[in-house]
Structure formats: C-alpha cells, structure tokens
Amino acid sequence: MVESTHSSSPNYDKPLPEIDADNREFWDSCKRHEMRLQHCSACGYWRYYPSPICHQCGSFEVEWRPITGLGTVYTFSVIHHPPVPAFSADIPYVYAVVELDEGPMMPTNIIGVASEDVAIGMRVQVTYDDVTPEVTLPKFAPVESS
Length: 146
Ligand code: ZN
Known about the structure:
The chain is mainly beta.
C-alpha cells in the first residue's frame, strides 16, 4: 500500500473530481478505502463511471457493491511532460486504463513500480491515495506475488 497523508492536502493543486449526486457513493467508498461500483440489479452489469441508468439494459435499479480491487493493465502511457505544472514533480508517471476484474475500464495511475516495468496485461490491485480530506483517488499497483 502506498498512501499519502492528509498533511500535504492544503497544498494539493492538481485537478480534483467533481463530486455530485450520481458519483458521491463512489468517492465516499474510495475515502473508506473499500471501493464500490454500481451493479445493475436487473442485468448484473457493473458500471463505471457512475450513472443513474444501466448502459446495457436501461434499468434504473442499481446496487452499490464492493469490488475485488483487482484488475489488468489494458493500456498505458508514460507521461514525461506534465499537463499542468502541478504534475512536474511526478514525471515520469504512468497514466493507464485498468480493466477491472468486474469488467469496467478505469482511468488511473500505476504506482509502486518503475514506469519502464509497466506492461499491458500486468495484474494490478487498487491502492488509495488520500489527496485531500474529501477526496481519495484510487490508483493501482502491481499485485504482490506470494
Ligand atoms: Zn442492466
């Protein structure tokens, strides 16, 4: 687990998610370090980003369920030029799309591994970065081999 502390949060100047009625449960679950996603009660489809309606069957019936936190690197890019100055200290860093074991694709960062060692198909697990008192960002690190 790689976790930051709240002590640096007043200085956090990177973009933050806009929390609204549709995604609040998601961000709250990240804050608790037990990420939950929407699971369609009608067809069983997992969805991310949060949305009031199922993209598969159109149902409004939904349940927030905990996920395994496991996934696979679907694609990634190593960032060498910061998109905004706040990211300067992080470069190079890995922006990736992780295919969760439950199915959804999640844009995220891969941490805890050198950028040159990240590979498509790598097994990863969620880790939580508490960037402000309100916001915890889910990031992914290589699954620790036992
Ligand atoms: Zn559905």
